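Hi D.,

Good news: the full-assembly prediction came through. Inputs first.
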Amino acid sequence: MMTEIEFLSWVRGPGLQIATIIFVAGIVIRILEILLLGRKGNLAEAKGSEMSGGFRTILSRSVPTPSTFKRSTFTIVAGYIFHLGLFLVIFFYAPHILFFKDVIGLSWPSLPTPVIDATAVISIIALLAVIVHRFNNKVLRYLNNFEDMLVWFVTIAPLVTGYIAFHRIGMTGPTLLAIHILSVEILMVVFPFTKLMHAFTIFMSRWYNGAMSGYRGVES
Amino acid sequence: MSASLEKGINALKEQVDSSVASFFSSCVHCGMCADACLFYTETDDPERTPINKTEPLRRIWKSEYTLIGRIGKLFGLTKKVDDQLLTDWETLVYDSCTLCGRCSMVCPVGNDIAMMIRKTREGMAAAGHAPEGLIGATTRAVTIGSPMGVKLPALQAQIGHVEKDTGMKVPVDVEGAEYMLLLSSMEIMNFPEFIGAIAKIFDKAGVSWTISSEAFEATNSGIQIGVSDIAAELVQRVVDAAEKLKVKTVISPECGHAYFAIRWEGPNLIGKPFNFKVRHVLEVLDELRKDGRLKTTGMESQKLTYHDPCQIARRGGVIDEPRNLLNMISDNFVEMPDTGKMNWCCGAGGGVSSNERADEIRLKVFQRKKDQLDAIRPDAIVSACSNCRIHLEDGLEEYHMDIPLLSLTETLAEHLE
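Then the structure:
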């Protein structure tokens, strides 16, 4: 049996290294296997620009039209909350920034800890609402598969373990922290091989969509 | 068309490019495409969720073009495409999708789902899982030259009637004309007034134009069924005729898919750029308006609305032109909720109207159009696609609504100065 400290140093050392290698290499492979497929050039006479259409859609697709908002309100609101919450918690919690400074040498101002704490709680609630909605909504229940469940689990786990570690609920500090880091490592390992990849490919997809529409003179 | 599962799988493999791979990689199963699709909103059937219709293509992408999928395949873990899947999916891919592309405008990660379904059809058709009605239409298009079986003598007879009614000459096979007009079979048989309207407008504007006796059919069943080889052959006929008559511009008529086929897919299907331009008739008319060559008189006082045909507006980029033209002749033009590039499909495009099996569902999903119309209660609906027009008339009758359908070109011709 590992001691608490051994467990913590493993997740901080070899564990993190393995997860980082799989995370980075996996993402590179996934992006290459998409881009290397290539795409035929368009021989039809253009009515608009691919470039401006592509870049416009990367931004504009973040804002649903009023009628789309009305039809998919829950998905949009809950989606926005947990994405924004994750972003703030991951990148603006002071100890996280210290970690990034260690790894990449850059640092930036943090948000006050109580704000992060509240954001984490709100994000957890949003993700719980998302899973309840997933089981209650006809379409989502139909689409739902193992990967969807796995991705949901590995996304909410770091939030929950981080919250528990911060508030020292249950076990002692080092074990809680180690569990939190381990949950992040699981997320990193799963990331490149699941729909979590949309964090990167969303920019490509929106670009392709906007470019193809823009070429035909339509803002998509 | 000899078909087999193997051919279908190969056809699907050929459809995967970087955009398709990116789209499948990005889907998060959020379900928003369902809320954007009239085949889901009006039936409540989750199988009809747009992204679900691409399942055969997704399986091929996953098992052939992703590392994890290829590893999974070694261990027999990857889901296969088999005849059972294609049989189960046939009604989703053909009967429950008009390729209207509304889902493609809503998907938050930016997937062009309509394009993915269009590509899925390539595999379905090659594997022998296309609907009877569409196979018939496509066969007629190849052998007779028209999906409805309209031959040259039928066109000549209609031209004769038009010339008698209008006193105008309809030019056929005139070499060196500026424009070559294509027609859909639907127009030739059901709305020959369209030809008369064009004759009048072009005569006033001093436009030189012609119809080719060798390639007058504008529609392209090859695209609707999803057989690129046939689609390319049909495009090539138009190209040959346009080159023979040395025209500068080919005009696509009031038909949605015809326009998308010749304007946006055409050069890519035959693998080379056209040496003439392709314009939708509304673009040509709007150009004439801008140049002061199209002058109208009088205003329609009845409340008019415009139904945007999906392939002309959302997929085709002709959105402002019909509005510019309508404003010339209407002082009571009202937009439906969700209009222009976000308009709801009539429910019968993309080959659905050629597929008798889909008759029931296309009328059921017309409820969406009814709701849109109920919101503004127009006196008449103007559109620019004879397929939309026929189906809208069908739907209005089914739902006991008495609203006349007008062709924009024909309405303009009635108001000529």
